[in-house]
## 1
Amino acid sequence: MLKNTLGRFRFIGILEGSSLLMLLFIAMPLKYWFGMPNAVTIVGTLHGYIFLVYIVAIVYTMIAVKWPFRFTIGALLSAFIPFGNFILDRRLKNLKTN
């Protein structure tokens, strides 16, 4: 998976999608149901850094793979939708890579 540009992007996308799910479905319930606000602080900070790496990876992949603009916008939007990166990953498996 990490042998080419698209594979590395897919890996970062999975990390970003997983961190979003951890934030939404683990850290947020811990904060609001169990009074543990540090969970959101820690997971939210980690998710923020991974999101920044994901944005850089989108730009790099857009240039290296010569993505159409709609792929770039789709990759960006998928980061804001729970499970969006996993759906994007499934679609990216079928693309030819550099």
Note: The radius of gyration is 15 Å.
## 2
Amino acid sequence: MAKRKEIETDVVLIGAGIMSATLGAFINELEPGHSIHIFERLGRVAGESSDAWNNAGTGHAALCELNYTPEREDGSIETKKALDIIEQFEQSKQFWSYLVKDGQINDPKDFIRTVPHMSFVRGENDVNYLRKRYKALQQFKLFKGMEYSEDPEVIKNWIPLVVEGRDRSEKIATTYTELGTDVDYGALTKIFIDNMVARGNTELHLLHEVYDLIRQDDGRWKVKVKNLSTGEKMIYYSRFVFIGAGGGSLHLLQDSDIPESKLYGGFPVGGQWLVCSNPEVVNKHNAKVYGQASVGAPPMSVPHLDTRVMGEETSILFGPFATFSTKFLKEGSYWDLFESIKYWNIVSLMRVGLKNYELEKYLIQQLSLSFEDRIEALRVFYPEAKAEDWKLEEAGQRVQIIYKDAEKGASLQFGTEIVTSEDGTIGALLGASPGASTSVSIMLTLLERCFPDHFNGKWSEKLKAMIPSLGQNLEENEALCYQVRTETCELLQLDWKEPVPAGITVEANVG
């Protein structure tokens, strides 16, 4: 029997999505001599969650997403998460801008464009909430420039489709900001990976599946890989492994057998979009308009009416409508959920199932919707919507995290979670939104956890050049905030027009 091919490498990235691509881009800058191998089970890059059709494309900055600013029991608005997310998205823009300056991104419009971000609510209670949210956010410099209105004529000027045909007696309100963006994370992933391969130190392996991870006595990882085209099996020995396989990450994390993996389980949630490509409709809407989530709905199911730009095509998406499948990936296996159930997480899964009745009720309700029901839901946002202008498309598949806390017990968590081994030789990303928008911040956290000495030592100057605000808080540093935003918007060709406050000098060439 022929001996399996064995290869030594510095870094293995599992999954060719935005997370692996972002981490690879950082490693290429910080350690240009490192060898990198990327393994992707599909025959294309960014085929799952990073694909433009499989996510909202929102540059999540908490400008319009109401679930990041919940109302407390005393009626006040919680703003901490919103501040964290907008700071993180500013880091993403800084890194992308650095790559533009460095010539690694030729045309920012290949992946990012200005699209206003808006919140839209109906009814007295929600209007009162949005008014309080707007006032709460206006105390922060990062949200300055946002506008608020309850006037139908003003709102019609911003989003005519939402106002035309609406009963004028209905109480409505919106917030509006031109700081918002639409991002094609699939296109950005391809830019990153193309750059990595062009440098000569990275090999991209499509149609290759990692099926086992074994820690070696010397601290390296034995990565078992199968070529899905030929059936050939190979072994890679790597000093560092990152599992960025979207919904497939949980299985591989469990295969690693690190103690940290025993704390997690997963619950899959899918989605569908209503999509309109009729130019007469598309040309009348230029915004991402987010509403209130239904009771029990996961954050990825917050309804929104979105302008989407993918290549030369502009469309409007509405949704997402939740679906359920036992698959952890859109192109996964129906056995995924069952194979993730282990003796150490089965009790957690059962407890979470018993505690999340509202989510289960919501999913059942969503699964029962007909096409006509979905059009009626659309008409809450767009009263004059015609069914013939819209078609139903499958969106991506996500896996919500089930986490077993020693004190609080098992809980279903929304958002993203970084899992790393104690020795920092392996890391994984679990979860969903805001995900891609905060990929730069997430990967910076991963690098700091896994390579603390390098992060705070020999890498620190280079990291500061790439992320000028690193280690600082933009909200607390007004001059740096406007300086960073001015340059990133200029380099990324975004339409941010807010005037610089008196007394602040904006220098050219941040970093």
Note: The chain has a mean pLDDT of 90.
## 3
Amino acid sequence: MTHPTDRHTDDFDELDALFEQARTLTPADLGAADRFLTRRRAARTRSRAGWLTGALASAALVAGLTVLLPAPQLPGPLPSSAAYDAYQSAWGADW
């Protein structure tokens, strides 16, 4: 008696040969992989450079606005400390 898979052995051999052929790298495969990796590295470099440029531009904008905006004006003269007030009252106004 024959096993049910015996009649399909030839089909399996052909399929195994096709898989082996598909796994074998050719020069065209290596060239395609090299082109893909080159483009991928270039895209990642552009992406990093874009992010860094954006961050530096934002920092420059914030620094520029900080320098250009006038400082807020206080309502009147600066408040003196309690120690200065006590010293001035002890010595008088002409010390």
Note: The chain is about 70% helix and 0% strand.
## 4
Amino acid sequence: MTEFDVDLFVIGAGSGGVRAGRIAAQHGAKVMVAEADRVGGTCVIRGCVPKKLFVYASRYAEEFEDAAGYGWTIPEAPRFDWPTLVAGKDRQIDALNAAYIRNLGRSGAELVQTRATLEGPHAVRLGDGRLVTAKVILVATGSTAYRDPALKGHELAITSNEAFHLPKLPEKIVIVGGGYIAVEFAGIFHGLGVETTLLHRGDKLLRGFDDDLRTGLAEALEKKGIRLVLGDQPVAIEKDGDGLVVRTKGGLSLEAGEVMLATGRKPNTEGLGLDRAGVETDGAGAITVDEHSQSNVPSIYAVGDVTNRINLTPVAIREGHAFADTLFGGRDVVVDHLGVPKAVFSQPELGSVGLTEAEALDEFPAVDIYKTSFKPLKNGLSGRDERMMMKLVVDGTSGRVLGCHILGHDAAEMIQMVAIAVKLGATKAQFDATMALHPTAAEELVTMREPSVRHRR
């Protein structure tokens, strides 16, 4: 008889936790997975998937406008129905939630839909009071939307969680933040006809991305009609009749039907019982782990956003899979967190992999920059004044491509494929030797012959 009730107990059935539980069960482990909410986690339930569906919906306004240049006549002004979109999104999420549950069951893992907290290095307390012992515990509770408690009236605002379930669209919205969520929802609400203001304390959007793309995106958003208020921040959110008003440090009063806080997310560790088990966290509340996702307590591991390494769904999935293979599959697998591609589904879209120009200059004595900006062929007949930008960051000594950054339509689709080349250490000469595919926007990636800038130190 085994010493423990299960070999593996997973707290959290998001992308990372589900993958870890499934793979461990397929390796023969006895697995129990606990989830207090719907199965699928932030990405599936209230993040990437519903967000991308909303992005698709919001793009149609421009598509209808562009159709005229291609000979199409729209008989009457298109009308958008918010409840129809929300209902369609809910059906899709329901289907994915059910698929995650089925896949867990097929793998042999047991799902318990209740809250679970740590009671010790090998013990978990379920919401119904049961105590379950486990040889190994994996924490995969993800992250949660951050609200600054010092912001007066923050309770009057929504976060991305509530944005997916609004009973109706507001006429005006103020979005606070300058990261992924803020710029993506700015494009969504604007595209659906909402007067949108983006309020960000920094002087540029999307910290951590290449500066040229950050500048290019800001210019494109303003050209679309989104109001950017940079270098300022809210000090209070107040009721104003049937609406709200945001008071800023710079003295502005921004009226809105809704205010959305998109100032980041924090590791979801509050009330988890980490202190009872002796698990160490960092200053942000994230569980500190090593390269194998193991915490300071040998029997407790953590993957995904709760570790605050790279907070992207594919990274959580890879970490969960590596964890299960290492502990239950007899393979020592370490996740490589370098060269991870990133996409922001802003409008226009942004894709990035590898080093930015600034990062390359800090690390390499010789850096060559290849950059192009052009109007895509599709915009020729439509008359849309939106340009595309592509940028390669190259080691001036070896010729290796250190980074690639794209702003424009389908940037995310392109960057996924470029990421393979960057991961393999492809050189600029190898990019040049690759035949262009015409007519495409992506062909520009292999036709940039002369560097725009040569940095030497």
Note: Residues 82-107 form the longest helix (26 residues).
